[in-house]
Amino acid sequence: MQSMSTTGTSTAAQAVTTLDEQTTPAADSTERPLTTADRCDVCDAQAYVRVVMLTGELFFCAHHARRHGERLKEVALLFQDETARLTADS
Length: 90
Prior knowledge:
Blueprint: H1 2-23, E1 49-53, E2 56-60, H2 62-75, E3 78-81
């Protein structure tokens, strides 16, 4: 009887570990400056928006970020918007 309890505890611990692994973001969820090397995942233009989700990160140019932004903000862990750089005074 005691071995069943140990097995049950072990299984529960494994389930918690698995759940924690599933909810850990695949990408870094802290902001970092976007560079010219960051490209839009839709059209390959320079990215000005970075969206971090549980499954990874996506990059968007200003055009595609405007098109999909509202929905992305609903599911994002981080919505990093640097589109203001396009109109900022130098």
